[in-house]
Fold this sequence. Notes:
Blueprint: H1 7-12, H2 21-34, H3 38-120, H4 144-186, H5 200-233, H6 238-245, H7 264-281, H8 292-306, H9 309-355, H10 358-445, E1 464-465, E2 490-491, H11 501-511, H12 519-537
Antiparallel strand pairs: 1-2
Helix pairs in contact: 2-5, 2-6, 3-4, 3-5, 3-9, 3-10, 4-9, 4-10, 5-7, 5-8, 5-9, 10-12
Amino acid sequence: MASPQSPAASAGSLDASPPSLEQLVTHFVNAKRALSSIHHVWRANEVVTQARQLLEDDAVLSSKSSFLRKAIDEQLKTLKALRYGIELVGLEGSSEFKALLNSLDESSHSLHSTLQTLRDNLIHPELQTPGTPQKFLFDFIDSSNVDQLEASLRQCIDRTNEADSALGDTIDAFDASIGRLQDAMTACPEVSVLNAPSPLPESFHSLESHATETASLLQSLVSHYDLCVTALKHTEGGNEAATRATSTESPIPTGADLPPDMDPNLQVNLHQLSLDVASLQSDAPPAAPLTEAERADMLAVLANDATEVDDVVAEIRDRVSDMEALASGMSAHIDSLQSFYTALLAVYRLLKDTSKEIPTYLDACRAFQAKWGEEKSRIEEGVLALEGLREFYDGFLDAYDGLVAEMERRRQVERKMEAIAREAAKKLDKIYQDELDARNTFHITQGTHLPSDICPAVGLPPTRYEIAATTPPRDDEGEEEAPVEGQADCADDSPAQPPGDDADDKTAREGLRMPNLPKHVVEATKQRMEQRRAWRDGGGGGGSGG
């Protein structure tokens, strides 16, 4: 709307006829009705006030939600780190357990391989006392130690598996707790409200712009109304016509009806409006007269502005409607933010409940570490014990093969001694026979001339030497008397003594004769000894080596 001093309006007044009193009254009535738009302005003011509170709520809720979300994310990271630490303890224990089981399996396999070799090795009959049942090397060992040791190790393995299973249940429970927290975070509505700048400041700025514009539009309506009042005051019969036309109209709001937080300039203008209406309806003297030119300009402006009153009122209504829509969007954003904050509070309460379970999870982890430490020591000791038994039984195998080799060596020595003894016996027999022949010759040539009592020993037969095998007594039968150097067993021609203790010793000695092992048995034994020696020299620590 143009002001009364508008040059355009003054120029236009030259071509337009001045409005009649009836037209002035119509413009006045329309202007007064247009002032009811003040209710829209009041609503605009309410919308801005409410939006200002929403803007404050947005700042508070955004700050709280952002802080709470970051705190929950940090706690979730901490929980995941704790969970990973517990899992790492289990993985390290499982890795050590598998390595120990591999060592245990190798030691057990080597031991059982040695035991199987003992079961397969038959004691050669030549090495056993005649008449005894056939035996194997395994019959000479006590395998109950192996059974007890393996039973103990199986119990260690079972206890370790139980501890590992308990730790696995703890990790599963921890995963379930973290999963519930993550599901609750995922279920939070409108998580994106914190990921972008808030739209409320821009909306509030638009609301303020609309409110300012509506106040300006209302100010133009007030100015137009004021112009109508002035025109009526300077028109004959204007007061009476205006009074009759507005007698049924609703009163114009006064300053007392205005909200206290309304724009101060608007409050002043509306207060002045109420004063103008009061003066128009009173019996006050008319205003100072105007010249014809001033009155013509005023009426031209009034007529031009009267055509825009309806458009101004419509614009005020549209702007307030837009403000309502913006305020509704702001309120929806706050509702979404409030829902998100409420959901975060629920997640936080769930997080507090989960934190109470953490000591239980950590205690389970420590219990697993302590249990595994105990069982690890027992299994390591068991592996060493299995290795010790294997080495002992391998030593038994070596000793048996060494026995076979020793028996063969002794047998060879006996054969050499027997050959030497046979050769010596032949020489002794020849010397003895030559001595008999020499004595007979002496007896024939000289004996008839010698008296018998001159030398009784001359008639004795020569001493006969024999080579006999003897077995020294065992430790429990006393020590063997060392023969005098140069002394040999000798026998005369006296009758043989009846068999007695010597015969019994001879029978016992024959029962303990040196075994005569077959050649293939001895060769096989030597081959096994060479294989085991090569296996050990080559770094093979386990097994019997064949």
